[in-house]
Amino acid sequence: MKQILQQLVAGHSGFIELRYHKRTSNSFVAQKGRVDVANHSVTEGVGVRALVGSAWGFAATADISEAAIKRAIRQAQYNASALAKVRAKGELSLARGRLSHLDFTGPGFSELVAMPLADKLGQIVSLERKLAQASSRMHTARCRYNEIIEEKSIVTSDGAACSLRLAQPELSLTAIAEKDGERATGQRGAGVSGGWECLLAHPSLHDAVGETAKIAVDLLAAKYPEGGQKTVILSPAVVGLLCHEAIGHTVEADFVKAGSVAQGKIGQRVASDLVTMADSGNETIAGYAVGNLPFDDEGVETENTVIIDKGILRSYLHNRETAAEFGVQPTGNARAWLFNDEPLIRMRNTYLMPGTRHLADMIAEVDDGYLVEGAGSGQADANGEFMFGTGYVYRIKDGKKTELLREATLSGIAFDVLKTVDAVSQEFLWDLGTGYCGKGQAAKVDAGGPYVRCKITVGGEQQ
Q1: Final residue of a structural domain among 195, 219, 243
Q2: In 243-313, which residue ranges form alpha helices assigned H by DSSP?
Q3: Which residue range forms the structural domain that includes residue 26?
Q4: Residue 287 and residue 365: Cα distance in Å, rounded?
Q5: Mean pLDDT throughout 366-373?
Q6: Considering the entire predicted model, what is its pTM?
Q7: Among 160, 95, 84, which Cα is nearest to 322's?
Q8: Which of 32, 51, 174, 350 has the fewest CB atoms within 10 Å distance of its CB?
Q9: Comparing C-alpha atoms, which of 71, 73, 52 is closest to residue 10?
Q10: Phi/psi of residue 351, nearest 5 degrees
Q11: How far apart (Å, rounded) are the C-alpha atoms in residues 215 and 310?
């Protein structure tokens, strides 16, 4: 397909971008010893962007014949020309960056495609049965499996010509325990850019059945934490949620232009000097990240973009257009969910760099606080103000991890919280691989980090 797109883009005046995308998705849910939900879908087509003056035009076709793609090119150019007539005159510039010529097949792609569906279903049902039998208190056990098989080719009139084949499987377990009408939930999951064996080897799935059941049962007797400003140690999943939702979105260049809290703060201190935060298209720290991409949907090679370096804000996340506007190189953050979506600035793998401390020592130094586990849902705004739910927390008293407590909410201003960070662990984990980012369209992302000790507002029972 890449060669066909190269032939079609040749000879056109102005800028043309062609993006072929085929996605095969399978989703299954096992419950009560059987596959309860099974979904299969295939989407395929070509998205076309044309640039005329200061205006973009977009068109898409699910017909991948040469004639249909040519019609889409003409339509995109017509749309761009029509918009350019009503906009201010001038030329919109695109930073070139590192335009890719890579033909990439991701690890585990062939393994996952070749694996019989029956084998996947059999193992999913087996995991659900083990979870259902893990405790007499088990009310509901559920195992969910999703996989996305991607094939893309991207060609631009100014030199990008690349293709990829990528597999992204994910697995999650949910246990609901019950006693005397009271219910509690335990969850565990992981996703990877890789094959089946890579997925099952993810550290988040080690003893996943036993741990998921135990948390659900133990939470039945758990109390709620005390509310207020607290010293907390955030687990990698919660650190990842904070990085993505409360900081990552504020440094996406389109949001920066719209007035996010990060606007005008390049070179300024926004966090403790223990904090280095980055967004990577090819993580090299701990393995198992699901957001690995060799290039973005503009054909720009991805990189490890350091956003905060030892507490100083160093970079925003860019596509080709905003990079030219800001006078920097594109960071490879333009992403589109389907062929008929236009690329937006999106994150990939967002994380805090590990530090030098050990978790046990960090706990030992806390007189009264919490170890926060199990990232839940949350929200944040353009000012970096956030409120997140957590699955459960442990009380830390006199330097020891003690009782398990029910879910709590965490809230604050992200940059203010990061300035209170006084310890960062060596331990590191990618732990949001089952998540999807929503920003007008979905995106498969990952996030994580080390354990981080800081001050934060905990929502719970008031004493």
Answers
A1: 219
A2: 253-257
A3: 2-219
A4: 30
A5: 96
A6: 0.95
A7: 95
A8: 32
A9: 73
A10: -160, 160
A11: 36
The C-alpha atoms of residue 64 and residue 76 are separated, in whole angstroms, by 16
Residues 151 and 249 in one domain: no
Identify the residue whose tokens are 């919280």: 417
The DSSP letter of residue 223 is: B
- Mean pLDDT rounded to a whole number for the chain: 95
If we measure between CA atoms, which residue out of 69, 92, 68, 70 comes closest to residue 80?
92
Cα distance between residue 449 and residue 428, in whole Å: 5
With 90 as the cut, is the pLDDT of residue 379 above it?
A: no
Q: Report the C-alpha gap between 297 and 317 in whole angstroms.
A: 14
Judged by DSSP in three states, 365 sits in coil
Mean predicted confidence (pLDDT) in 186-214: 95
Alpha-helix runs per DSSP H in 87-194: 109-114, 117-132
CA–CA distance, 127 with 124 (Å, rounded to integer): 5
**Residue 344 near residue 335, CB atoms below 8 Å:** yes
Q: Evaluate if residue 18 carries a pLDDT over 60.
A: yes
Closest to 380 measured CA to CA, from 408, 401, 409: 409
Pairing mode of beta strands 334-335, 344-345: antiparallel
Residue type, 77: Q
- Do 442 and 328 reside in the same domain of the chain? yes
Cα 417 from chain centroid?
A: 21
Task: Classify 245 as helix, strand or coil.
Answer: helix
- Are the C-beta atoms of residues 458 and 227 closer than 8 Å to each other? yes
Asked whether the beta carbons of 187 and 170 are under 8 A apart, the reply is no
Q: How many domains does the chain have?
A: 2
Between CA 343 and CA 440 the distance in angstroms is 11
pLDDT tens digits along 128-143: 999 999 999 999 999 9
Listed residues 186, 219, 252: the one ending a domain: 219
